[in-house]
Structures are given as C-alpha cells and as structure tokens.
C-alpha cells in the first residue's frame, strides 16, 4: 500500500564470462592490427598505433553470441589503460543484443595511461535477453598516433532480477520500479546501481559494517527514466578501506537495502 516500507533483496549475479585474451579464437570478427600476448590484448604490436592513409579507420573485435537466456541485468567490466589523440581518436566497448541493438556502451577519447583503471557498463531491461555480443572498437583519424589501448581483463556478468511490479486485485499493473543490485560486487572501488520508476525524493545512504554513515545524498526529483547512480570508494572523500557496506535507497513508497563488498589491493 502507499507509504508502506518494503524490504526487497534480489539475487546476486549467477552468470559470468571471462574471455582468454591471449586466444584470438574468442573473437568472431577481427579487424585491424590487434595483438595478443600472454595476459594483454593490445590495439597494435608496435609501440605506436598506425595512421591510416585513407583517413578515418576502425579496428574492431566482436565476440561470439553469448548465451544469457533468462537474464535481464548485465554488467561488463574492462580493466585497461589507453593513450589516444585527444578528442580525435575514440575507443569504445559495446554490448549488443540478439537484435543487433546496442543496449550498453562505454567510450573515451582522452588519455589514461599511467595507471590501470577499471571501467563499467551496466544495462537492464524489463524483458529478458537470449544472447548478447561484446564489441571492442578503436577509431583512428589518421593524423597523430599514440600508444593506443591495452586491455588486461574483460568480464561480463548477467543476472535475472524479478519485475518489481505492484498489481491490483484485477491483476492490473499499478506501479513498476527498478533498484538493481550493486555492480560489480565485489568491487575494487567503483560501484553502480540502476534506478528507474521511483517517486522523488530518493535518499541514498551508505553505511559501513559498524553502522556508521559514510555517505548520504538526495535525488530531489522522481527517477522516471533509467539512471545509473555511482559511488567510487576511495575517491572524492569516500572511504577506501576493504569491507562490507550497506546502501539504503529510500523513497516515499519504498525502502530497499543493498550490500556490496569492497576489496582493495
């Protein structure tokens, strides 16, 4: 009923796929000078990536279709570093469904070479997926070349989360909302939660294992479209120690508590 608090706990991800990057067989489509070593996928074997005499060029890798039948939540992590021509060359990782529609993507056109980082793609839908493909793209414009892109890890996790709908006595849908599990979980710092269909204001509070509040913020407006809320433990004043944390998402109609594990090296 309106105003009643509900505690909703969803299952953790049940499917994970990790390609062996040293084995080029994991890619259905291979276009460009990609190079495979024991533990790294590189955009080229040379120190600097090549220029294209024809101008714009695209290097691409596309995975085989990955069977994720019966799931509707996806999280893809990429551990990598890159050095590109600012705002001219572009790298991207895409998740494409079985209808060849892009359902999630990450891209960059800058430089992050000195330190290895982990980037995340999260996507969710009300309907379930049957299969997806992962595409890795590197677009160069043929002018200045830099050290390119090195990928050290790529992992896709899929899970089924139930359709959180409220129905009346005649089985008619009254309200639909989404509060996903934190992903990735465990994480080394960056954690995201997908939100949609929530009345405002939305209060998000993070507690450590001892019950101490370590973060609090309010989204003052309703969250009608899909929104990915993120927190980066260990950055911007947030706690950075390893441990178990609880995230409470509270609206005028719902209260949901999620937990995540932070593992620092």
Entry summary:
By secondary structure, the chain is mostly beta strands. The chain contains no helices and 19 strands.
* Share of residues in helices: under 10%
Determine the mean pLDDT. 77
Uncertain spans, ≥5 residues at pLDDT below 50?
1-24
Number of strands: 19
Strand content: over 45%
Structural class: mainly beta
N-to-C SSE string, H for helix and E for strand: EEEEEEEEEEEEEEEEEEE
Outline type: globular
Description:
The termini are far apart. Strands 1, 2, 3, 4, 5, 6, 7, 8, 9 and 10 form a 10-stranded antiparallel β-sheet that branches. This protein has a 4-stranded antiparallel β-sheet with strand order 16-15-18-19, with no helix packed on it. A 3-stranded antiparallel β-sheet has the order 13-14-17, with no helix packed on it. Helix content is 0%, strand content 54%. Strand 15 and strand 16 (213-219) form a beta hairpin. The chain contains no helices and 19 strands. The radius of gyration is 20 Å and the shape is globular. By secondary structure, it is mainly β.
